[in-house]
Amino acid sequence: MTASDSGTVLAVALNPAIDMSSETETVHPTRKIRTSGERYDPGGGGINVARVAAELGGRPEALFLAGGATGALLEDLLDGAGIACHPVPIAGSTRISFTVHERATDLEYRFVPEGPTVTPAEIEPCLDVLRAGRHGYVAASGSMPRGAPADTLARMARIVAARGGRFVLDTSGEALRATLEHARVFLVKPSRGELEALVGHELDERGIREAATDLVRRGAAEFVAVSLGAEGALLADGRHVLRMPALHVPVRSAVGAGDSFVGAMVFALAEGKSPEDAFCLGMAAGAAAVLTPGTELCRRADVLRLHEELCSTCPRHRIGMEV
């Protein structure tokens, strides 16, 4: 990387949120549901990536769209977390998501609004930040806001690559498809369902390996990490696939496991670790995230403990692929 500082991370969230979580004894219709243990966290894919990188000891920055009183609250929460901010103002208000844990059943209910509609002009300053920046890794994670041009993330990827940085992509739907068709990214992290939507049909284990490897071979990405939920994850580089089973831990909340996976991988890459070692840390962080309640994400001590367990008990499974 000649034009970028390889050790710096910029996390991009074009549709961030205020994540509110609480708990109640029973969820039922019509009547008021009294909750307790309310918690407010800055949220949305890219914001969570920055939170995880900071928790692990990094000094990430966050680039995000923000509007209204909730946008100001998002900035305050990030400032309290010690994360440097690059807020880009929009006319609409930043969304609020709501998670409720039902104690009687141990079930979790998640309510996630679409968020504000934005204009292309409101997104353009985000591209200016990327053009002016020197971040070694730029991670764009989460959903796209309504009104955003389909090629927004592809444009971001090309800008980052042109100045010597590495672009990490974690999104879904048309934004994922358009970016992989019109730009080359360093790392893309689809879930199994997102990969199946991308190829247009269901995939078995071999099909997942082949689809991930094909993305590398056709030049869409240098590395593809596919999260498989309880079945673990895999990392493809075009020649080999590193396959690892999931770490089995007690589940308190599923919120942010994928973001924790990406945040830990990007943190490790920025620290100079290999993609394979970063993948292992991502596995540990994803497992650590489900140990915490609500929207708390992973804790550093849990990540390090699970990473040590993973390294000591789980061999790396490399599957050779024909070139």
Automatic annotation (TrEMBL):
<comment type="similarity">
    <text>Belongs to the carbohydrate kinase PfkB family.</text>
</comment>
<keyword id="KW-0418">Kinase</keyword>
<dbReference type="GO" id="GO:0005829">
    <property type="term" value="C:cytosol"/>
</dbReference>
<dbReference type="GO" id="GO:0003872">
    <property type="term" value="F:6-phosphofructokinase activity"/>
</dbReference>
<dbReference type="InterPro" id="IPR011611">
    <property type="entry name" value="PfkB_dom"/>
</dbReference>
<keyword id="KW-0547">Nucleotide-binding</keyword>
<dbReference type="InterPro" id="IPR029056">
    <property type="entry name" value="Ribokinase-like"/>
</dbReference>
<feature type="domain" description="Carbohydrate kinase PfkB">
    <location>
        <begin position="18"/>
        <end position="298"/>
    </location>
</feature>
<dbReference type="Pfam" id="PF00294">
    <property type="entry name" value="PfkB"/>
</dbReference>
<keyword id="KW-0067">ATP-binding</keyword>
<protein>
    <recommendedName>
        <fullName>Phosphofructokinase</fullName>
    </recommendedName>
</protein>
<dbReference type="InterPro" id="IPR017583">
    <property type="entry name" value="Tagatose/fructose_Pkinase"/>
</dbReference>
<keyword id="KW-0808">Transferase</keyword>
<dbReference type="GO" id="GO:0005524">
    <property type="term" value="F:ATP binding"/>
</dbReference>
